């Protein structure tokens, strides 16, 4: 019964993630927000059912999003970083506070660098300036830190308030 519930829950989360990213892709205003929202949906699955199911959601949502989204940026960002980040976050946070932040920032900046290089050399976009790169890295890191802190708060809220309520009702 637990496996059936886990698979059904994962299917619902995959569908919700794809719908959110489709809305973000169609509007192109909420593309980053939709990608982050889809990534945050993985967290309860990781907590309740483990790494395997969380990575299954990541894989299914990535492939489905790449196939159906009209604007591929949210799907690419989800595939390259946001989709598997909740699992990495849990793994990194077992290492201590300082090492955890070092690993998180290194992973994020390596991914950001790869995305920038890919867009410049694969999409053959013109190089603007080093100043623009510095601004992009600075703003992206600020957004990443805020998102990570938000995820930590949401995990705490889920564990303290929502998880016990869901368990009482037999939903997890």
CATH fold naming = Arp2/3 complex 21 kDa subunit ARPC3
Tally of distinct domains: 1
Number of helices: 8
Major pleated sheet: none
Main structural class: mainly alpha
What is the oligomer described by this structure?
single chain
- The percent of residues in helical segments reads over 70%
Number of strands: 0
CATH class designation: Mainly Alpha
Q: How widely separated are the two ends? A: 11 Å
Outline type: globular
Strand content: under 5%
Average per-residue pLDDT, rounded, comes to 91
Low-confidence stretches: none
Please tell me how large the radius of gyration is.
Answer: 17 Å
What is the CATH architecture descriptor? Orthogonal Bundle
